[in-house]
Amino acid sequence: MTWPMTWPGRWRTRWRWWVSFCAERERPTSLALVRLGVGLVLFADFAQVAHLGVVDVLWGPSSEGGLGVANTLPGTPVLAHAWFGASLATARGLHALALVSSLTLALGLFSRTSALALFFASTQLAAILPFADRGIDMLLRNVLLLLACSGAGAALSLDAWRRHRALLPDVTVTAWPRRFLVLQLVWVYFSAGLHKSQLTWWPAGDFGALYLILLDPHFARADFSSWLADVYPLTQLGTAATMLFEVGAPLMGLSLYFRRTAHRGGVMRSVFARLRVREVWIALGVAFHVGLVFTLRLGIFPFGMLALYWAFFTPDELHDAASRWRTRRAMTAAPSSSS
Amino acid sequence: MLRAVLRWADLRAALLLFVLGVSAIQGCPVPRVQPHQVDRPIGQRELARWSRILGVPAPELRERVLDVSAEASRALDTLGAPFAPFYERTLTTQRWSLFPLADPDPWWMHVEGRRVGGPWELLYRPNDPQHARLADVLEYRRIRGTWNPGATAPRDSYPRFVDWIARELLAQEPELDEIRVRFSRYHINLPHEAPDDTTSWHFEERRRR
User: How many angstroms separate the Cα of A44 from the Cα of each of A9, A99, A102, A123?
Assistant: First the structure.
């Protein structure tokens, strides 16, 4: 006869499971691709600021024509102002730090330091002019903290080349940062879905939200007013798909759990596997963001989000896919080389 | 050595659980509805719709929503108070909204200039290729964030934005004497709705050379 586990025993078992889950390791490939994507997106954004010549007006002090008034607030909320003074030099210095550290992050040069430096620069620029800091900037700051705690620089990086003379060395890193990034993404979308309480996002509002947004002149990429009403049902479908994608994000989390525990079997696991919930959800997400690129002016938002999608794939999946592609290429080349 | 490794593993797991817990508190989707949000036109339309759906009179629904929101916000703020400084300093969050409101009454910025005694000439407005002065700068996301109004009012940075855009345009166009920035507001009808062509002007600011 087996005694039922006691309450403390049950919690001890769960704690041990959590400790071993946080200690699991994997190859750094997925995180490295996230690092590369985030670095490139932010570098492009800060380079665009320089190209447009608006560094001073965005982040300079109000006394020098800057748009923000942080330098006038008592007990300034901007650490950089407290340390270096509120000046054009500080603004340009912070921008330069953001530009350089985003590039070194992308290249994987002193990756953790680059991530932290970029995080610092980003927070200071946001504190100087909060209106110029958008949701994607806040999300990427969260990601930078994760990258700084991860082994994202251990592959596809100058750091990897310096240490191992290889871009994909045979090393492992802790897996929890990638998993936390997956959780972060699922939460971003679910939270966004929950905040869409306006009825035009729902059947009671005729699923009219996307139609209204595509006619907003400040965000629409072009003037769609001459023909958008003719494809109104398509916009309704787009609105419904957006809500399904966002509010359905926890199903994505569940599908990942089911994949990890596939050995337990069960109806739900086989239904999720048969419906390919994970693949469908990721495909919806990619389509959603690619659609945004072509229809709305949202800056780096769709690119920044897509840069994070590498986290949805385990490093083993990426390596297997790369192997299959190399094998297919070799098989395609073989007949011509043997004739 | 092994004991040190095991202790670090436990400490790491505890820290990560702590981070998840704090994030869950900060990101808890408690409604934070303010009276001015309910009282603006889009809020009134939503209130009327929900009142019909729920069968609750609109004034009563308004009071209930504000009361529940205030109580829930107070409770969550108390719970999250120890961690608030971190989020304030790092300007990070776990409350995310992507286009929570699809505004049927959008703003449309107009930047205009005129010579001394002359008529106003349109220089820039979004989605108008014929009037696209400084479009690449004005439509850059960070700059747009400083001039794109909220639901009922312009951003705090708006007057300084007008100062700056006026300086830029007057420097580039020596014959111009005055710059005007203002926003039209109009209604977008869904295809099945009765047309409403009402337009109004808001937030006008002028700067002279």
Answer: 53, 9, 9, 18
The CA–CA distances, whole Å, from A337 to A18, A331, A332, A333 equal 53, 10, 10, 7
> How many Cα atoms within 13 Å fall on the side-chain side of residue A37?
20
Q: Find tokens 């002279």 and name the residue.
A: B208
The first and second tokens of residue B9, run together, are: 């593993």
Which residue, among A277, A278, A301, has the nearest Cα to A290 in the 3D structure? A301
For residue A145, count other CB atoms closer than 10 A to its CB.
18
DSSP state, residue A171: -
Amino acid letter for position B183: F
Q: Could you tell me if A310 and A37 are in contact, meaning their C-beta atoms sit under 8 angstroms apart?
A: yes
CA proximity to A92, closest of A70, A130, A66: A66
The distance of Cα A86 from the centroid of its chain, to the nearest Å, equals: 32
Please indicate whether, in this complex, the C-beta atoms of A130 and B91 are within 8 angstroms of each other. yes
Q: Specify the DSSP class assigned to residue A205.
A: G
Structure tokens at A2: 């087996």
pLDDT digits (tens, 9 = 90+) for B137-153: 999 999 999 999 987 78
- Asked if residues A150 and A178 have their Cβ atoms less than 8 Å apart, the reply is yes
A220 contacts on B by Cβ (under 8 Å): 127
State both tokens at B49.
Answer: 């719709």
Q: Note whether B163 contacts A: Cβ–Cβ < 8 A.
A: yes
Q: Is A186 on the interface with B (CB under 8 A)?
A: no
pLDDT digits (tens, 9 = 90+) for B3-43: 766 689 999 999 999 999 999 999 998 888 888 888 887 88
CA B98 to centroid of chain Cα atoms: 11
Which residue in this structure is represented by tokens 């903290």? A145
Do residues B49 and A58 make contact, with C-beta atoms less than 8 angstroms apart? no
Q: What is the ipTM of this complex?
A: 0.90
* B104, B187 Cβ separation under 8 angstroms: yes
Q: Is B93 exposed, middle or buried (0-12, 13-18, 19+ CB in 10 A)?
A: middle
**∠ CA A88-A91-A94 to the nearest 5 degrees?**
145
Q: How far apart are CA A331 and CA B12, in angstroms?
A: 47
User: Which residues, at least 6 apart from A315, have a Cβ–Cβ distance to it below 8 Å?
Assistant: A26, A27, A28, A29, A30
Which of B92, B95, B169, B187 should one mutate to test binding to chain A, selecting the residue with the greatest count of A CBs within 10 A? B92
